[in-house]
Amino acid sequence: MSDTALLQRRLAALRASRATLPAARHEEVASTVHEGGGARAQRLATAVGGEWLHGPGGNVVRVEPMTIALPIVRPRLASLPGQPPADARLVCLDTETTGLGTAAGTLAFLVGLGWWEGDRFRQVQLLCPDHADEPALLAALDAAIPRDAWLVTYNGRGFDWPLLVTRYRLARRAAPVHAGMLDLLPHVRRLFRHRLGDARLATVERELLGVRRDGDVGGWEIPERYLSFVRGGSAVPLAPVVVHNAEDVRSLGRLLVHLDQRYADPDRRPLAPSGDLVALARGFTRERRHDAALGCLDEADAGWRPPARGSDVWPYGAALPIVTVSRERIRAERARTLRRLGRPGEAAAAWEAIAAAGGPGAARAWVEVAKLREHALADHAGALAATAAAERAAERARLLGLLDPALEPALAHRRRRLGELLRRAGAGLPPSESPPRHAPADGRVPPEEATLHQARAGPR
Questions:
Q1: CA 305 to each of CA 207, 274, 299, 309, 351: distance values in angstroms, whole numbers, following the listed order
Q2: Any residues with CB less than 8 A from the CB of 5 and at least 6 apart, and which?
Q3: Quick one: residue 181, left, alpha or beta (phi over 0 = left, psi -120 to 50 = alpha)?
Q4: pLDDT interval class at 56 (50, 70, 90)
Q5: Taking residues 335-364, what's their average pLDDT?
Q6: Apex CA 104: angle with CA 101 and CA 110, to 5°?
Q7: What percent of the chain has pLDDT over 90?
Q8: Closest to 239 in 3D by CA, of 222, 251, 227, 256
């Protein structure tokens, strides 16, 4: 088909679609397609319950939802890993856009902001009535963000803020200056991924915050509702979009309060699920706050409960947890934390307790005991005994069908190396010299060999 024929076919389809429009719709299009920017902004303000503001850059509609009580203890929240300083102002930010991209063709037509004034959470929403009014929206947003504020977002680092930076660059303006950004999406993934099906904000609201939305507009509908309005359609379908955005911003505030009350409060934190406390301990470990991490792990161990029948357990050594964390995993994390704190004796005792309990992680636990005894406690004979215990545990696991192909060769190498160290020490040689290769003239077993055989045989 030629280009001319294709163009004629499209024009015929367009004429046919216009001919089928109801008369009332023809009248609405005729009355709005030629309206001025002020009239369009006024229609939008009336539909969403906002006020129309006109400035040098164009028109913007400002909506201020009712404030809600949302008490938060900022110094307590700041004690958690990854949180802003206690004296930093927090401004929650969420956008509604014409698409999911961050390139030049995507417009952020609605920006919602929320911040604390005492125990009250105050919100403001800025809407762009038309593409030509974007400079007014960007100017209003710049004026609304304090320079010393931290922006609180959900996937803001990956989407909202890069998109806004793009829009400011296209307008030849600098993006608003701010002190930092707290993206809550990574925090949710780290703390709660073991018990959430996904990390969407709707899932967080339902599973963590106990929030249920009735009649909420779907995110996939939002771009078309705005574009329909810009093309001359009714502004009424945008009212649920404004409500949706306001709830998103409130949920950011609610999530911060949830973290403050459930995990920063030392009286309530022991009541949190053990898997959450293990994840929180890892956050403290990333910041090298090992004492705080050890406290979380102690609370997780004390409050651990066996999983409900039929539920999955986070297996030892698994990369991705499933539903809850095993007690063995908690105690393994605790042993590692004791080592980081420079308490090798306690760490070795913790690993021994894990190994004594048996299970699939017993052999690995004995290996950790051997490492600590050799490198931190300078107890080579004890390290050799732990290696022999690891070999016995690995053999039991192999008979049960729990194969670990890399473990047994590593244990054999460790046993040979430790035996060599003991022989050198028994012969009074420094580690760099070669031990004698001949057997004793009297035929007796050397003391280091006796230690090796006793370690491999285990306790009688």
A1: 20, 8, 12, 12, 21
A2: none
A3: beta
A4: confident
A5: 94
A6: 70
A7: 70
A8: 222
- Clarify whether residues 292 and 312 are in a common domain: yes
- Write the Ramachandran bin of 310: left for phi over 0, alpha for psi from -120 to 50, otherwise beta: left
- Which domain, by its residues, includes 309? 272-341
List the one residue out of 135, 154, 163 whose CA is nearest residue 59: 135
Q: Are residues 107 and 128 located together in one domain of the fold?
A: yes
Amino acid of residue 328: E
Out of 234, 264, 294, a domain closes at 264
Greater model confidence, 25 or 65: 65
For residue 139, is pLDDT > 50? Answer: yes
- Residue whose token pair is 């406690």: 377
Which residue do the tokens 């998103």 mark?
A: 248
User: Tokens in use for 369?
Assistant: 């005991």
Bridge partners (DSSP) listed for residue 150: 90, 180
CA distance 72 to 67: 15
Please name the helix (run of DSSP H) or strand (run of DSSP E) that holds residue 121, with its range, or none. strand 120-127
Q: What is the pTM of this model?
A: 0.81
How many C-beta atoms lie closer than 10 Å to residue 30's C-beta? 10
Q: Read off the pLDDT of each residue in 221-242 and give the average, rounded to a whole number.
A: 96
Residue 28 lies in a domain: no
